[in-house]
Write a structure and sequence with these properties.
The structure is a homohexamer. Chain A has helices at about 55-65, 115-125, 130-145, 160-180, 185-195, 200-205, 215-220, 225-240, 245-255, 275-295, and strands at about 15-30, 30-40, 45-50, 70-80, 85-90, 205-210, 210-215. Chain A is α+β, with helices and mostly antiparallel strands and about 325 residues long. The first copy, chain A, has 2 domains: about 5-105, Nucleic acid-binding proteins (OB fold (Dihydrolipoamide Acetyltransferase, E2P)), CATH 2.40.50.140; about 115-295, Hypothetical protein af1432, CATH 1.10.3210. Chain A has a 5-stranded mixed barrel. Chains C and D meet through helix 7, helix 8 and helix 9 of C and helix 7, helix 8 and helix 9 of D. Chains A, B, C, D, E, F: This is HD domain-containing protein. Chains A, B, C, D, E, F: Keywords: Hydrolase. Chains A, B, C, D, E, F: InterPro entries: HD/PDEase_dom (IPR003607), HD_domain (IPR006674), YhaM_exoribonuc/phosphodiest (IPR050798). Chains A, B, C, D, E, F: Pfam families: HD.
């Protein structure tokens, strides 16, 4: 992972690859200039190129509708008002042979993908109820190839592995909760719901070159909650499992109700203890994930940016002593 | 339809069949007595039987868990505080040969069932889009046999034919709306949604002897909105229609979004004009149906009972002149 | 109606009359430039004039406080970032003899004004209750001369005829509703309310050269709902009708309650079925009008702009097949 | 004012006049008995009459629909569960010659009616703006004869003089507020609004024998806010004052907006400082009036009954020291 | 723990000790009778005693204001309408020598008190930050003697040990969460908050004979949140710890903000990740505790009673297979 | 107080001291220019300096992070679009000897600081309850030195003396309210609460050179409500007053509950009449203060700017006649 931006200082001349994520023409002195956003896994920086020449316009024509793109930039960092920006000398495509994966420039969840997959698959294997185990295994395999690239939320942490991280966290918290209420909670049902609950978000987000750039029409017309309910039904049918079997209907209910209330997108509310538990655990990790994302980007001792989701700022402190 | 109760006066001795809808033992003078509710299509009356004898207790044992039941009652109407009640002399099962259908005692929507079916089926036949027409016809046939008995809502009008009435009203209002916005609204899509939108309520309500007595587990675990989405998918599959065809997904969207907002049970909100139109028309007729039910039970010149749904009373007036 | 803007392509040199709706001086290369918005019935375009000369400043002084104005513009269309803008060569007042009505440049509701008036006046003539018919006819005549210019809402469709269109739609939907609930709804009362309910919006909006530019003080101090109640009272008095007659009070109630709830501006809530019906029908057409306005401006196959009123975007699709 | 009930103890035989406010027949031992509520200015007591005789039934027939009535009751107080009730020996109409005004049995606001009228009329006389002074004087005279009997609210303090008390409090608080913001607030406008703001409640409540028993149809169809706006208009017309004069429209605005928000019944929100001030002062005294009513009925050292308006209980404490 | 009630059948003659929790006189045949509620750890039963004799009235006088009391009851179980009640033959105080602790009749949380104390005290000992460890140990010792008797909530589970159970659950969930977000969360701070957050509820509830019977004045005047903040301050002072030390202020913040939002009683909202985590974990276990309480009282295969806190019912199912 | 800005006209050449409150570099013709905001007690003006020279950049480096600063500016007022701006010729620090206090440039509350202090201290002296009088006097002395500089709210009126003004208004309104409800309200308790209720806001705001620039961490971690509760406790302890004395706990309750509801920051809601009265009076003056601030900045006859707090505009009118 490339992490140059975070440690840039004023008045450095640099020549580096970055991910160009926005590019606009602006009107200024002596005609138009470019205003750009460059990113790597450690953050973003604003950059400006003046004195545009023919080659710049050619580049613009080729790439401004195909962002994000990896580009090679040479420039000088300057203090500009509250922050550092980059005065760009030139900007070019990297050589063909140096083709660099976009994923190198993206932040990623603090997990090991392979370990997480192993943990989840062992958890699936540990399910006692055969019907649930077969359905969950099948649906999970369906989504597994796409899972690592997806973030847990389009508003929250955009990182590679975010959805996988959230899924693993949800499963672990559910295991703790089962330990607290062992008589009330059926482990097979709760863990099955925990694994599948958010996977269909993969059909809600449009991934372009490893970055979620927008939501799909499907997310507006059907939504990941009903999409997963469809998947469970169809998987059951494919596996010759009765779609009206009690476990199948209860698993569908776990998925349909996991947002807790209609206003958050669930067509029905949790009606069994396992559905409540899944909803509460999902909400807890989702909110902590938002806090984590905010916290990561905040320097020590400072208040974070305003979070629209949390409707507040948080402070990053270290407890002394 | 039997309509005796509405016109009862004080001090009449009557001997009639009624629908017994509740029966409780109460402690009073000289031991326990029965407190009952008797109903017919025109309303309800409270009744009390004193001086219980062996036969009464036998009757109680047999029927108090199997209500509602048609019974034959002889008694005397009395003024009691604000209203009329019935002092019961005896209460018996009707003779076997006089077996009377419960439906005779139920209020019903002011429509002709056959005419309504004909109207809906002609409307289905008029749909231009073959995919939609085939799916709608098939799903409609699935529910048609059960449709007449169901009310439009468990809180609102309990009457026989209520769901059919609401469906027909929705279709007619949609036709008017299509006339007002002909360029914006696709008739096939809007009318298809109008016909199917509430049919799966039939799986939400438990019908016992022609009366909806409670909601089913399915209504809590899945709900009629997602149930109809499942039905459309499965019908398409049965008819060899691609479940990812645009019309199928849009029709699913019409159904999923027709409650307008998540807090009213829709997992997604209306995202095309036809979905908005269906939601608005459905809400209008649903609310007017509640007003109608309240208005029907209110004497001319009086304020109605308090309606929890409307959060108010209405006044039944006649405009003079 | 002039509809040039919608079909402009890049690199066209045009010389056309437009409606200039905004004009600002901006700081840029070689001093200030003008940033303008030009409109016709088919849409809007941004335009910029550089190299300002004395005549430009004279024009600015004369017209920048008197917008909108019809102007003659010569310029060249350019691709600029996501959209087309116009590089202006010159901008002048049209010759006196070519004086062109602003209304040619405005979008308008898809109705024929004369037909709508005829429809409404025939509807008024069909009212059976003489008191209502006389009051409605008189109040309608009061507002009729101003009616065609007004939009249905300052937030929604700004078009010429919008208020008349909404009034006609409301009447037609009420006729359908009366057909569905013929016993419950008094046609005279409901239709009278439908015709008058929004007319006093004409006193809420300030019209300048055929365009609603802002709301009046009266709309904040009294509001169109109470204003229409005053109008009914005063009209009754002028016509020697007892202001305490039942129909007059009920018609006032229809008007006062038609926004349904206090939070939407009604000092009292609907208390008779006709008042409910008017409220529900009015809300339905108002919301569909907002959807229509959004839909009209959206290219086929695209998601619309964000609508603050609907709190969402809609997609403009065509159903194939 | 009669205040017997508050000081009754167990096992007293009493023979007193009370106000009978409810009378119901109940089923119990040896047939029906009467369950009654008796009231005087100090509170209420439940009473029961057993062994009903012919005269009791005659009394019942005559008065149970004409309550409240003054009756003479002889009985014995008993401890019954948490509270005292009265075992009634006989209950009769008082002799014709002893006819006693119902108002003797009602709680009343802690003011002197004549002093309050004098204070308000002197305040009116002190208004500098002739137009406002003439309108306020005229409207006040219209309502003055009915004012003493009315409570400030049907939910709150039911007492004689309550509306007059609230009006006087509102005026006094407005005088203080004018002293705090003398440049911003026009005294004539604010005081005029303060005097008139609630007077039309007199048309909202139905008074039967000095007690507000229910709200009128007018309160539901038009409401006291719009009714007072009508009164101001018509009074201006009678006094040959231009109804479009600035003061008249602003005074109407004060009245229309004094509930602050649409959801509390105002068709427009306060748009001038004086309208805000009136709204805030009115809300303050209204809420303190509710607290006062609750506090009055609560014994020292106890928590009050639950107040639906305040959504809580208050504690009646004495600060020692 | 006594658990007789749960397994009672119709027509059993029993003679058992129960906890009498309510006792009322009612009017019925041949004078008054007693209506009682009897409880043990497995549930409640309604009981009635007829034919009251002198000794019954003496018992009533002595105990009806001092409930709950352990009593010895002999009676016969009967089917009455939907449920079983007990026809009481006699009811007496138990012999002095058989004095039985009320706690035997109370439901209790499914934990071992000693184990939980050991777990919490070992957790306290494991805190690295000395300031926090000393404060938490001291405050915990203050409340420890009273902790076992208290329930977690006056609305939820009333059982012995409930508050201790909830405290332990909160700590365990926090440990899991710390494992998921190890860099972001300071364990000392989060665990300190977890242990102390609800202890001051002990001052909010009034305990009478081991049962929480109502909330204290202190709970209304100050509340357990601010009370614990006071306790931390005063403990710091007693221990000669600077009350303005960073850890002390952050710990106060953890406590003050743990209800998450002002509307739930927190004067400030969570502003550091640990405060968010505590709030989310506390809310999760509190809600699951309510579900657990409901679930426990519901027979297998049935829907539970309506829960006002959850605003719904839950179904108790067993997953087959 | 300096009040130049309010009366500036177009085309005046001025040389004056102003408070520079913002300073930014912008990209424009011939390189960057300065965009500044200059303020005095009568308002603000935008200013621009072109043709930046070395001295300008030096000034920028020195002061742009230390704003606000008093500067001497020479320039020419110009009409620019809707408003006046200032074309700056030069901008310099004032001579050392002319050092001018920032407070001269700030708006201030329309009160005399000394008179207000005298009024509050006489009020404190008039308290009868010795415990309350001693605590209030001591806490007031603690905050008194800082009081004059603080505004009543960071969102509302920023003026010098604003908090003192609001405190005095609250006391005066409470005196009026005590006059209206003399039996219900204990003057000592209500007045004590009125004086102390907002003083701890002084610890919520960060004051830099006489201007509140932001809120403190303490305001987020503890908040002024709990801070004042701490102050009362600690002051009582210092004065050897029992912290559990009834008056002390009630005074704490007054402070803790004065925001009325949890959602506005009170951990407990008002539970005694005095707490209600303080809450209502505080809310009234706070809202009128916002209206006053808006009104002051609005020219006569105009609508004000949009107020986010009030969610509306107000109109500044003069009542004629």
């Amino acid at each position: 992972m490339r992490k140059v931006i975070q440690s840039l200082k004023v008045n450095e001349t640099i020549k580096e690859h970055f991910l160009l994520t926005s590019l606009q023409t602006k009107l200024g002195k002596n005609g138009t200039y470019f205003e750009m956003t460059l990113a790597d896994a450690s953050g973003e920086i604003k950059a400006r190129k003046w004195d545009l020449v023919e080659k710049d316009y050619q580049l613009y024509d080729v790439i401004h509708k195909e962002l994000p793109q990896v580009v090679l930039v040479k420039g000088l960092t300057r203090q500009f008002q509250q922050s550092i920006d980059l005065k760009v000398f030139y900007i070019v495509y990297p050589d063909v042979e140096t083709s660099i994966s976009i994923s190198e420039f993206l932040p990623s969840a603090p997990i090991n993908i392979d370990d997480s997959f192993r943990e989840l698959e062992e958890t699936i294997a540990s399910l006692q109820n055969e019907t649930l185990r077969r359905i969950v295994r099948e649906v999970f395999q369906l989504y597994k190839p796409f899972l690592p690239q997806y973030p847990a939320s389009i508003h929250g942490h955009q990182g590679y592995g975010g959805l996988l991280w959230h899924t693993t966290n949800t499963v672990r918290l559910c295991e703790t909760v089962i330990g607290l209420y062992p008589k009330m909670l059926n482990r097979d049902l709760l863990i099955s719901g925990a694994i599948l609950h958010d996977l269909a978000k993969i059909k809600d987000y449009k991934l372009e070159k490893g970055i979620v750039t927008k939501v799909t029409d499907k997310s507006k017309f059907v939504g990941h909650i009903v999409t997963m309910a469809y998947d469970i039904r169809e998987t059951a049918r494919v596996l010759n499992i009765d779609v009206h079997a009690q476990e199948v209907e209860l698993l569908e209910h776990m998925i349909l109700s996991h947002h807790g209330k209609g206003e958050f997108g669930s067509p029905v509310e949790p009606s069994i203890p396992e559905a409540f538990a899944l909803h509460l655990v999902d909400a807890l990790d989702t909110k902590l994930g938002v806090v984590h994302n905010l916290w990561e980007k905040t320097p020590l001792g400072e208040w974070s940016d305003w979070s629209k989701v949390l409707e507040k700022r948080i402070k990053k402190v270290t407890v002394e002593g």
